[in-house]
């Protein structure tokens, strides 16, 4: 599967889906972003059940600001609409595969339970 370009109009709908959505925040002028792109694209081909999305931070500056992106590339992983991973920096292929395996292995009932506990203790 190829990657999907996200905009402010499509971001929330895409990350809210069931399953895993990875988001690569990048810019064309960013050297590490250009180095990470082929790694990300190759992973997208290998994991057809995962949505591999990209956000061009130059074209989508407002969206990048909303997501508090301060360094690129930044990789985010959403599962069932919940942000479960966010890390700046270009990942080598083995590290990206580790992230994918970790996100696949999450017990989402436990994640939801922990989030509910955090909300309860923070008074949210």
Automatic annotation (TrEMBL):
Alphabetized PROSITE patterns for the sequence: THIOREDOXIN_2
Keywords annotated in UniProt: Disulfide bond, Electron transport, Redox-active center, Transport
Pfam families, sorted: Thioredoxin
Boundaries of every Thioredoxin domain copy: 1-105
Gene3D superfamilies (UniProt xref): Glutaredoxin
Electron transport recorded as keyword: yes
Family: Belongs to the thioredoxin family.
Name under which the protein is recorded: Thioredoxin
Organism name: Georgenia wutianyii
Gene name as annotated: trxA
């Amino acid at each position: 599967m190829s990657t999907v370009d996200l905009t402010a109009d499509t971001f929330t709908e895409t990350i809210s889906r069931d399953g895993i959505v990875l988001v690569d925040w990048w810019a064309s002028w960013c050297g590490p972003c250009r180095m990470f792109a082929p790694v990300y694209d190759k992973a997208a081909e290998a994991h057809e059940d995962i949505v591999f999305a990209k956000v061009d931070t130059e074209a989508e500056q407002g969206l990048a600001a909303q997501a508090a992106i301060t360094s690129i590339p930044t990789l985010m992983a959403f599962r069932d609409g919940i942000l479960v991973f966010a890390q700046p920096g270009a990942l080598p292929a083995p590290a990206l595969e580790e992230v994918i395996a970790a996100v696949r292995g999450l017990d989402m009932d436990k994640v939801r339970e922990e989030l509910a506990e955090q909300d309860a203790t923070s008074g949210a």
